[in-house]
Amino acid sequence: MNVLRLQRISLRFGGVRALDDLSFTVEPGTVHALIGPNGAGKSSCFNVISGHYHPDDGSVSFGDEDITQLSPHQIARRGVGRAFQNIALSAHETVLDNLMVARHRLTRSGFVATSLGLPRVRHEERRHRERVMEIARFVGLGEKFDRPAGALAYGDRKRVELARALSSEPELLLLDEPAAGMPTHEKWEIAHLVVSVRDALGISVLLVEHDMPMVMAIADRVTVLDFGRRIADGTPTEVQRSPEVIAAYLGSSPGPEEPENAAARRTRSETS
Ligand SMILES: Nc1ncnc2c1ncn2[C@@H]1O[C@H](COP(=O)(O)OP(=O)(O)OP(=O)(O)O)[C@@H](O)[C@H]1O
Ligand SMILES: [Mg+2]
After folding, report:
1. Is 180 found in the same domain as 74?
2. CB of residue 234 inside a 6 A radius of ligand 1
3. Ligand 1 atom 17: the closest Cα is on which residue?
4. pTM (two decimals)
């Protein structure tokens, strides 16, 4: 199992420092949360890890390999999967087809051989279909394989996005706000799902999530960003006590209120 290591990453957009000398490590077998106020640089960080952006400085390694300059496709093939903050599904295609697209990137045959219908390929295709159906059930989509992705309720589309990332059989999964916009009970279903991705599938998860009670309940480790800089890194309990974190979420000291409640309140008001 590979460690993901970001070392001294900087990323600029014109005058904006989206990431500023950022370092942290995601250990195998953990749920690692990446949190911070809106605009802190969380999605930019995901874009650097997944190869959609190349940083101005610093390096990203996965296991022994430096992946900083690799393409998104190459990084996916090395076992880093990603679900996007904004759902990026093909609305007219079925759930199954959306998942199979992610799968085809892994197959040796590819689309051409598949469309020729060679027996070996047909067999491989069937195996992949069975596997993505298993994944769809795992994320709670039940038997909705044949429905067009666009016809599903919002929460189910978020699940398809997650299932699609899982369909590439990653070793590390990047989840950007998988429970955003969901009612509380559904958020907790996603929280349980993230934990079972780690425990049942043995996949490490790097999680961006604004819901603080959820982060604190399920993360093994938390890295906190503010203005692209790392302002805290540790266990949930450690970061909740950090004065820098409290200040970043409140814009001032927390006063008599418990820090975790204060952080959660600020986050809710931001995302509502
Ligand atoms: N493609 C881009 N071009 C210009 N500026 C960008 C681009 N992407 C991000 N930024 C800027 O970089 C900073 C970090 O943005 P980013 O989207 O990474 O934040 P975030 O932590 O994911 O925020 P949110 O919680 O709102 O999703 C912001 O100031 C944003 O405006
Ligand atoms: Mg974001």
Report:
1. yes
2. no
3. 43
4. 0.88
Looking at the fold, whether 179 and 165 belong to one and the same domain comes out as no
Buried b (16+ CB within 10 A) or exposed e, 147-174: eebeebeebbbbbbbbbbbbbbebbbbb
Q: What's the CA gap between 199 and 31, in Å, rounded?
A: 10
CA distance 206 to 3: 12
Read off the tokens for 190. 């996603």
Structure tokens at 61: 């390694």
254 part of a folded domain: no
pLDDT in tens, 3-42: 999 999 999 999 999 999 999 999 999 999 999 999 999 9
Total number of domains constituting the chain: 2
By most ligand atoms within 8 Å of CB, the mutation choice from 42, 176, 225 for ligand 1 is 42
For residue 41, the ligand 1 atom closest to its alpha carbon is: 18
Q: How many CB atoms lie within 10 A of CB 52?
A: 15
User: Are residues 116 and 75 located together in one domain of the fold?
Assistant: no
Distance 208 CA to ligand 2 centre (A): 8
Segment 78-110, tens digit of pLDDT: 999 998 877 778 889 999 999 998 887 666 555
Q: How far apart are CA 211 and CA 85, in angstroms?
A: 14
Q: Which domain holds residue 126?
A: 89-169
The answer to whether the beta carbons of residues 23 and 49 sit under 8 Å apart is no
Chain center to CA of 102: 15
Q: What's the order of all strands across the beta sheet hosting 31-35? A: 80-83, 172-176, 204-208, 31-35, 221-226, 229-234
Residues 114 and 215 in one domain: no
d(CA 159, CA 31): 18
Q: Which of 149, 169, 189 is the last residue of a domain?
A: 169
In a domain, 209, yes or no: yes
Token match 């892994």: residue? 106
Where is the domain boundary, 169, 199, 227? 169
189 & 130 share domain: no
